[in-house]
Amino acid sequence: MSTTSIYKHPKIFKLENGKKLRNLEITYQTFGKLNAAKDNVIWACHALTANSDVLDWWKGLFGNNALFNPEEHFIICANIIGSNYGSSNPLSKNPVTGLPYYLSFPEFTIRDLAAAHHLLTKHLGINKIKVLIGGSLGGQQALEWSLAGTNEIENLILVATNAVHSPWGIAFNESQRLAISTDRTFYANQPDGGLKGLKAARSIALLSYRTYEAYAATQLESVNEKTTGYRAASYQNYQGEKLCKRFNAYSYWYLTKAMDSHNVGRGRKSVTDALNNVKSNTLVIGIENDVLFPLSEQKFLATHIKGAQLSSISSAYGHDGFLIETDRLTNIIGNFLKESPSEKIIKLNRTA
């Protein structure tokens, strides 16, 4: 059973930067049923341009007959603030002006996204989450949420993510925003503003999501005579146009800024001290040839989160492997969840 709903927050939502968001709306989907003990909740946090339909974008890991299936679990995925898939975003109507926000939408952080998830759990009457999982920007949300201490999170699964967004990652995001800002229509306050810039931004992003090997395997020319019209060029154009049909430049602009804001050490003693305070049984999964979130970042997480287990895979898809290599993720995550907390403690003591 799948249900799509919208939670309308009755109060003003105060953001980390002190700004306020009125009439906050969060679109979310649930799959399956909450059991009587309310201990079968699987919460998935989505990445940059995804939506609340986790059974669609994480197919193979979520779905009927998958590891996380609605026959056994109560699965929840909430669309994040700023995204144009139903939650409050720059194209939403500003209650003060009666017009869309566009670039007057307040900036928000990863911590704000986590706070919004907590609001939704209160609305749903959920106190305990059996598994909280997210990849990339979704993993950043999951980590911040676990540190907030607002909900009991039994198992935390962080995939291809980090504790602090890197200068490298910020540089990629800024390059994408520069591409968007060169499109004059971005400042025209219209729903389709900045789409040419968004197309270029997506092309830049793809270079951080995939690898040299992936392009060599899928976009290599079969003939030697070409001097134009290359497959790789067509692919970049196609992917840019594809995103423009389902997303908008304003949401993309704000969400990349939110990703840049990710730093678990902000307002806390230090990054390492913050990670040391994670209470959940934690699994960290990295992709060995991930250009955007290199394995060193997952090793850092696993080193400083008490008792965390680290696993890694190699994928020709690079960072995008976290969405594609679902069979391997199923094996790693399934084995992790089969171990009871007591077995994990014994294993930890043996290696200490």
UniProtKB/TrEMBL annotation:
Pfam families from the UniProt entry: Abhydrolase_1
Protein residues bound to substrate: 202, 320
EC number from the UniProt entry: 2.3.1.31
Gene Ontology MF term list: homoserine O-acetyltransferase activity
Catalytically driven reaction(s): L-homoserine + acetyl-CoA = O-acetyl-L-homoserine + CoA
Domain of life assignment: Bacteria
Alphabetical GO biological process terms: homoserine metabolic process; methionine biosynthetic process
Classification via Gene3D superfamilies: alpha/beta hydrolase (3.40.50.1820)
Chain ranges of the AB hydrolase-1 domain: 45-323
Location(s) in or outside the cell: Cytoplasm
Keywords for this protein: Acyltransferase, Amino-acid biosynthesis, Cytoplasm, Methionine biosynthesis, Transferase
Enzyme class: transferase
Active site: 136 (nucleophile), 290, 319
Main subcellular location: cytoplasm
Oligomer and partners: Homodimer.
UniProt record similarity statement: Belongs to the AB hydrolase superfamily. MetX family.
NCBIfam families according to UniProt: homoserO_Ac_trn
Role of this protein: Transfers an acetyl group from acetyl-CoA to L-homoserine, forming acetyl-L-homoserine.
Protein name: Homoserine O-acetyltransferase
Organism: Pedobacter insulae
